[in-house]
Write a structure and sequence with these properties.
By secondary structure, the protein is α/β, with parallel strands linked by helices. It contains 15 helices and eleven strands. Helix 1 crosses helix 8, helix 4 packs across helix 8 and helix 5 runs parallel beside helix 6. The longest helix has 21 residues.
Length: about 375
């Protein structure tokens, strides 16, 4: 791996474009909706003192989404809000459809079933048996295709048009932006919750946030939140992707949305995507300070670090994609090839760093195999 291919340092203009997506994000409503659900509970927030000491920073914080609605990932926030909003206008709609590499499909299946509706979920060829079973157990009809992620999305779109299903995809493209925007709006709940936690802590602010990304809808939602709340004073934001499927990094380098050139082989299944979401990209390029890609080695190391904590740090059960941000931080702090990026971010003993664990052990066989080894 050549150093120049591992990261991109961005100079964001910190502007929020005025379009349908940002209007729906501004409109809000997700937090109130989620709090109205009987199974709603805020997810946990941890301070990892031992890890902060190890990496010579002031504080390391983790927002743990593994327990969200009992679905082992944050995706239920977006799918449930989007489906609820769609049904307000189309109450007689019977079937929802999506393409997924795991967590989003399970979330759509759960949200559709909760609303008394059916769901059809298409998954790419490399989706694990455990992920497929998890989606099926939420009531969906799961169909595995001999296609990659982008091709599976295209198939789901075509079948939805043919069959009259409602497509609930978490990536946007030309003329398909409303539902992805509603999904992004649904993700806002976790960021609002997080502010409630931060207000109880004796720190002035978060300085640096690492956001893992697949198509970028969640990362884009997070960046919009920070831009909307803090403007040019927002924390520095670093996007982290798998080495072999780094669409956002490739797009930064190209200056436009492109499909990455990797082989799409990674254990970080939830991040194993192609071209970035149209509307998410517009937000990311305006608000992210840097983009980087990492090998699976760092994801495994991050999983083991969370699962086998030092000192009084809380054990965190985090899946391969869930640790993406923390894995990027480990790479940044230990791999000299990221030295220029580390210097640019100006990380010091006074830096407060935030991560989100976006999934738990969604593939239990893979998880157990990885964490059985000590870090």
């Amino acid at each position: 791996m050549k150093t120049e291919n591992l990261f991109f340092i961005n100079n964001p203009n910190n502007e929020i474009l005025h379009d349908q997506t940002t209007a729906l994000l501004k409109e809000g409503g997700a937090y109130e909706y989620h709090k109205s659900l009987l199974t709603y509970e805020p997810t946990s927030f941890y301070s990892l003192k031992s890890q902060a000491k190890k990496y010579h920073v002031s504080n390391i914080y983790v927002k743990d989404e593994a327990t969200r609605f009992g679905l082992n990932a944050f995706k239920s926030l977006g799918a449930s809000f989007a489906i609820n909003e769609v049904l307000k206008k189309k109450p007689d709609l019977q079937t929802f459809c999506t393409a997924t590499d795991g967590n989003h499909g399970r979330a759509v299946a759960w949200a559709a079933s909760s609303a008394g509706k059916k769901s059809i979920v298409y998954v790419p060829k490399d989706t694990s048996k455990n992920r497929i079973e998890a989606i099926s157990n939420e009531g969906a009809q799961v169909i595995q295709l001999d296609k990659n992620y982008d091709e599976t999305c295209a198939h789901a779109e075509r079948k939805s048009v043919e069959e009259g299903w409602e497509l609930v995809q978490d990536t946007a493209w030309d003329k398909y932006e409303t539902i992805p925007a509603l999904i992004m709006a649904g993700y806002q709940t976790q960021f609002i919750e997080l502010e409630d936690d931060l207000h109880t802590l004796p720190i002035p602010k978060i300085d640096l946030v690492f956001l893992q990304a697949g198509v970028g809808s969640w990362a884009g939602s997070a960046i919009w939140y920070y831009l909307n709340r803090y403007g040019i004073k927002h924390p520095k934001i670093v996007i982290v992707e798998p080495y072999e499927s780094a669409g956002i990094l490739a797009s930064f380098k190209a200056g436009r949305r492109v499909v990455p050139s990797g082989n799409f082989e990674t254990i970080m299944g939830g991040l194993n995507c192609g071209i970035p979401s149209l509307t998410a990209w517009d937000i990311i390029k305006n608000g992210a300070n840097a983009s980087m890609k990492i090998s699976d080695h760092y994801a495994k190391k991050a999983m083991r670090t969370f699962y086998h904590p030092d000192g009084s740090d809380k054990r965190i059960v985090a899946g391969e994609s869930g640790v993406g941000g923390f894995a990027g931080f480990i790479a940044l702090m230990t791999d000299s090839r990221f030295g220029e990026l580390k210097d640019h971010l100006e990380i010091t003993k006074g830096t407060n760093v935030l991560f989100y664990n976006t999934e738990g052990a969604t593939d239990i066989d893979s998880f157990n195999s990885i964490v059985k080894e000590k870090k």
